[in-house]
C-alpha cells in the first residue's frame, strides 16, 4: 500500500473532490503493467540495434519504410495481445467520479479506450490506425496480409502508422484541446511519463503556471517531480486503484 499516511490520503481526497476540472496526462508507464514496453525500453530483442527516436521519424520511413513498418507491426502485435491494467480501469472510475476530467495520453496503444475511457485526447496518435502518408486519411489495413507497408487505395502512396513522429506537429485539434484543458484545469495528475517529450511535457508546466495542483505518479523521479505538489512514487497499476479506494472511503464523498 503506497497511500498509507492518513494525512496524505486526506489531502489527496480533498484535492480531488474539490477539483472543478481535473486533467490526467498519461505516458507509456501507464501501460507498462499491461506488458507494453515503455518508449525508452521498447528496444529489446530484435529492435535492440535501433533507438526509438530513430525509427519514429518521417526521415526513417522515407529511408526505409519496410523497417519502420515492421517495427510498428511488432508493436501492434504486442498491443493486440495485452489487456488494460488496473491503472487504466481506475482512470475510468475517476472519469466517472470526479466533476470533470480531461484525459490526455501520449500513448499510442489505445488501452485507455479498451478499458472504457471515452473522449481520450490521443496527443501522439494511435498505432492501431494507419493513414495515407500523402493524404493523411485513415486507411483500413488487413494486418494479416501486411508484411510491408500497403499502398493508399486512393492515391497509391505508402500507408503509414497514424502516429505523430518526432519532428511532426501535434494535430491541431488534439493540441488545442490539450492546451485549453491544461490552461483551465485546477488539478493535473501526470502518470507514467519521463516528461522528456515536448510539447506534451510542457502541459504540466502550463497547468502549474495557472495555479493548478500537480500530482505525479511514477516509480522514478522526473523533471516534473520537483514541481509536483504530491509525488506518489510507485507503479500506477497499484497507486491509481488505491487513490480510487481512498475517494470511495468515508472521507471521499465524490
Ligand atoms: C514537435 C508516437 C514541432 C510515435 C511519440 C521543444 C518543443 C517542441 C518540440 C521539441 C522540443 N524539444 C525537442 C523537441 C522535439 C521532439 C522531442 O520532444 N524530442 C525529445 C526526444 C527531446 N518533439 C517532437 O518532435 C514533437 N513534435 O515538436 O513538432 C513542429 C511544430 C510545427 C511544425 C512541425 C514540427 C512530436 C513528439 C511526438 C513523438 N511521438 N510517440 C511512436 O510512439 O512510435 S513520443 C513517444 O514518447 C511516446 O508517445 C511516449 O509516450 C512518449 C513519451 O515517453 P513516455 O511516455 O514518457 O515514455 P518513457 O519511456 O520516456 O518513460 C516512461 C515512464 O514511465 C518513466 O518515467 C518510468 O519511470 C515510468 N514508469 C515505468 N513503469 C511504470 C511507470 N510509471 C507508472 N507506473 C509504472 N508501472
Shape: elongated
Which molecules are bound besides the chains? ligand BV8
For the record, give the distance between the C-alpha atoms at the N and C termini, rounded to a whole number. Answer: 22 Å
Main sheet strand line-up: 3-2-1-6-7-8
* Overall pLDDT: 93
Radius of gyration: 19 Å
Alpha-beta classification: alpha/beta
Number of beta-strand segments: 8
The helix content, as a percent range, equals: 25-40%
- Percentage of residues in strands: 15-25%
Report the total helices. 10
| Parts with pLDDT < 50 across at least 5 consecutive residues | none
Largest sheet: 6 strands, parallel
The multimeric state of the shown protein is single chain
Q: Spell out the helices and strands N to C.
A: HEHHHHHEHEEEHEHEEH
Characterize the structure shown.
With 254 residues, the protein is an alpha/beta fold. It has helices at residues 6-18, 29-32, 52-55, 58-63, 65-81, 86-97, 111-115, 172-184, 202-209, 236-248, and strands at residues 22-26, 101-105, 120-122, 125-132, 159-163, 187-191, 213-217, 230-232. Strands 3-2-1-6-7-8 form a six-stranded parallel beta sheet, with helices on both faces. It is elongated. The two termini are 22 Å apart. Residues 27-29, 32-33, 38-40, 53, 56, 106-108, 124, 163-169, 192-194, 196-199, 217-220, 222, 235-237 line the site of ligand BV8.
Amino acid at each position: 500500500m503506497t497511500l498509507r499516511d492518513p494525512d496524505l490520503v486526506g489531502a489527496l481526497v480533498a484535492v480531488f473532490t474539490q477539483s472543478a476540472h481535473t486533467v490526467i496526462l498519461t505516458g507509456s508507464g501507464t501501460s507498462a503493467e499491461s506488458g507494453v514496453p515503455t518508449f525508452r525500453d521498447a528496444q529489446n530483442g530484435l529492435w535492440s540495434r535501433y533507438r526509438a527516436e530513430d525509427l519514429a521519424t518521417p526521415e526513417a520511413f522515407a529511408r526505409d519504410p519496410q523497417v519502420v513498418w515492421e517495427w510498428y507491426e511488432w508493436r501492434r502485435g504486442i498491443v493486440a495481445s495485452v489487456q488494460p491494467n488496473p491503472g487504466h480501469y481506475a482512470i475510468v472510475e475517476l472519469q466517472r467520479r470526479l466533476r470533470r476530467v480531461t484525459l490526455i495520453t501520449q500513448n499510442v496503444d489505445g488501452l485507455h479506450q479498451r478499458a472504457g475511457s471515452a473522449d481520450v485526447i490521443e496527443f501522439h496518435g494511435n498505432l492501431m490506425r494507419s493513414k495515407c502518408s500523402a493524404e493523411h486519411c485513415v486507411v483500413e489495413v488487413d494486418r494479416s496480409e501486411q508484411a510491408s507497408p500497403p499502398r493508399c487505395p486512393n492515391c497509391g502512396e505508402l500507408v503509414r502508422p497514424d502516429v505523430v513522429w518526432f519532428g511532426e506537429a501535434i494535430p491541431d485539434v488534439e493540441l488545442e484541446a490539450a492546451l485549453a484543458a491544461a490552461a483551465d484545469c485546477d488539478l493535473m495528475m501526470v502518470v507514467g511519463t519521463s516528461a522528456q517529450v515536448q510539447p506534451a511535457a510542457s502541459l504540466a508546466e502550463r497547468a502549474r503556471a495557472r495555479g493548478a495542483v500537480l500530482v505525479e505518479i511514477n516509480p522514478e523521479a522526473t523533471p516534473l517531480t520537483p514541481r509536483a505538489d504530491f509525488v506518489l512514487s510507485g507503479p500506477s497499476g497499484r497507486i491509481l486503484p488505491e487513490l480510487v479506494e481512498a475517494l470511495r472511503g468515508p472521507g471521499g464523498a465524490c
